[in-house]
Amino acid sequence: MAKAMTAKEVTKKVFNNEELFVLDVRNESDFNDWKIEGKNFEYLNVPYFDLLDGVEPILDKIPADKELLVVCAKEGSSVMVAEMLEEAGREVSYLTGGMKAWSEQLEPVKVGDLKDGGEMYQFVRIGKGCLSYMVISNGEAAIVDATRMTDVFTDFAAEKNAEIKHVFDTHLHADHISGGRKIAEKTGASYWLPPKDAEELTFEYNRLEDGNEVMIGSTKISIQAVYSPGHTIGSTSFVVDDQYLLSGDILFIDSIGRPDLAGKAGDWAGDLRETLYKRYKELSSELIVMPAHFMIIDELNEDGSVSEKLGTLFAKNHGLNIEDDGEFRKLVSENLPPQPNAYQEIRETNMGKISPDEEKQREMEIGPNRCAVR
Amino acid sequence: MNVTKVLDAKGLACPMPIVKTKKAIGEIESGQVLEIHTTDKGAVKDLAAWTESTGHELLKHEDDNGVLKFWVKKG
Lengths: 374, 75
Fold this sequence. Notes:
The complex is a heterodimer.
Chain A (H helix, E strand, L loop, with lengths): L2 E3 L1 H9 L4 E5 L3 H6 L7 E5 L22 E4 L4 H12 L5 E3 L2 H7 L1 E8 L5 E7 L4 E8 L2 E5 L5 H10 L3 E6 L11 H8 L2 E4 L12 E2 L5 E3 L6 E6 L8 E5 L3 E5 L7 E2 L7 H15 L8 E4 L16 E2 H7 L8 H9 L9 H9 L6 H8 L6 E2 L1
Parallel strand pairs in A: 1-5, 2-3, 2-4, 4-5, 9-10, 10-11, 11-12, 16-18
Antiparallel strand pairs in A: 6-7, 7-8, 8-9, 13-14, 14-15, 15-16, 17-20, 18-19
Helix pairs in contact in A: 5-6, 7-9
Chain B lengths: L2 E7 L6 H10 L7 E6 L4 H12 L2 E8 L2 E7 L2
């Protein structure tokens, strides 16, 4: 029997910049659309259905001195190919649960301390590039931009003996299904969303508005909401503990948000520019920016986290350094990357208008997030 | 359409629908048509790519209440 390698183990290899040879046996278009990314990973894509007669034709393309992982969509085909490779004398693993599991893997990383002794965690959804946050202070927790794998958050809070009091979404997401509402229902926490993104919401929520301050724990951890339209009309950023700027899908490490996923690229290009070039400029350059996504593996820090000083981003991020208004407008409204898979259905799910089953939700989220323009 | 053979691969997960398709197509003559029924959604792209790489022809496919049906002409 071929060995199994879990998505968690592969995540560790990504974080540690280890080497891995990935034989991806999905069809070519799925591979080209989305794959496991690692700085020191090498790839070979040969669909499993081209290997039914045997793996001999590809043996000389697979280095014998590298750790080998076979990957497919759901696991079945990678087990078949891994066993064939094993019979051919190769040492090989397959990815448990395939790309489906890879898309759902969430890894908590501690990203900082709060002034009162609390802690800040980032949850890295490595396969899809989504980032969620948990602020823990004095036995209480707040979660920002939770993914639909809600158990990871509730288990983590329980492990830390923290009660989840507030769940926020910085905006109505179009690339992934929010776990915010579910966590709030399960724990009794309040669910917050910017009202301008919530006009079509079918369930109760708390209005997240500019200047809102929410305390976590009994000490002074304030979550300050900063209205920052651009990616969506309601997009809101948070300043946590005067130290961290949770920038949602407005500002990323190596790119900026795209304003078109709710259908209004032209109208919102101006809002996005105003947010990035005026509102963010007024904030302290010492704030640590923690976005809701990363796009490329180079954006990961050494510990696997994704963050950078606001001042550094103003110096280095191309999207913050476009002087000409017309050029900026062009960047954010023309030649945009393809839209995320099923983004309209994802928005409707997040509004509570449709309730797809888990299998359907998985399928809707397949692929990268594509929330940015560079 | 003149179908020579029908393959029921419903309920089977990847890679079995294609493994069985390959076997079934081996049992018909060139120019004859194999009809395949599956519930594995991955089959849509995979069968299209497989027929292309093996020189068979995917005549059409449809979704019949969750059962995916394909008609493949042997090359």
